[in-house]
Amino acid sequence: MNSSLEAMPDALLAEFQVLREEFSRFMFAYKFGMDEVTTKVSILQQEFKHLQRYNPIEHVASRLKTAESVLDKIARKQCEPRFEEIRAKITDIAGVRVTCSFTSDVYLISDALTRQDDLTVLQRKDYVAEPKPNGYRSLHLIVEVPVFLSSGVVDVPVEIQIRTVAMDFWASLEHKIFYKYSGDVPPHIARSLQEAATTAARLDDEMESLHHDVHGALPPVPVEMANGSIPIPDAVLARFAQQRVTFAPLI
């Protein structure tokens, strides 16, 4: 045990341990909420891969803020340090990022997620349609997902970012430059970033147009289940078809 804890009076030590337990449960709820959203995206990814001609999801990543980062944000936002207040005012503790192929895919994936009954959209910011002044483009969603624990249901906010590969490349570069200059990016570099964002947006449009010319309208139509990863032999299909023809319900 840490020597600083050993020096604590028993009553204070007990209170400290209770706080640790509460903080751990609080953070795990966000991890579970993040896992729920990641699973939803993974299911969509498998559906697109096996049941449709085209899979728009290129990559999925998730991240959970550290406890230290949560405390830093509490201080910056002047949020009351109670778990109920933190959950209400800090909505990006858990995050999922979906990288897709084309701009139209951003909205396709967003619609597929947000029409699910157990997801509640708390906030939507469309930086694809209206980029930030620095050129940043992405679709941001704050959704609330129910997490079913042994003690009951906890509604957890999770941030979802959906962007194209080009948008993600630009955002990654901008993030590195921003931190290199501690947020004070020189004007000439900021202008170059804006120009690069315009170029990336034009590349998105040109690549989607090319894809449309080659493969037709997006999204593509579904294909038969036999093309999926679960094998269904012809003999099984024939038997099932015969069962459907001869089935007579019991009276």
How would you characterize the overall build of this protein?
The protein has 251 residues and is an alpha+beta fold. The protein has a domain at 12-165: 2-Layer Sandwich (Beta Polymerase, domain 2). The chain is built from eight helices and five strands. The protein is flat. 20% of the residues are buried.
Output the keywords.
Beta Polymerase, domain 2; 251 residues; 8 helices; 5-stranded mixed β-sheet; 53% helix; 18% strand; alpha+beta
CATH topology of the domain at 12-165: Beta Polymerase, domain 2
Q: What is the architecture of the domain at 12-165 at the second tier of CATH?
A: 2-Layer Sandwich
Computed structural class: alpha+beta
Averaged pLDDT, please? Answer: 86
Elements, N to C (H/E): HHEHHEHEEEHHH
- Major sheet: order of its strands? 1-2-5-4-3
Give the full name of the CATH homologous superfamily of the domain at 12-165: Beta Polymerase, domain 2
Reading off the top of the CATH hierarchy, the class of the domain at 12-165 is best stated as Alpha Beta
According to DSSP, the number of beta strands is: 5
Main beta-sheet strand count, sense and barrel state: 5 strands, mixed
What multimeric state do the chains show?
single chain
What gyration radius follows from the Cα positions, in whole Å? Answer: 24 Å
Cα distance spanning the termini:
71 Å
Which spans of ≥5 residues are poorly predicted at pLDDT below 50? none
Estimated helix fraction: 40-55%
Strand residue content: 15-25%
The number of helical segments is 8
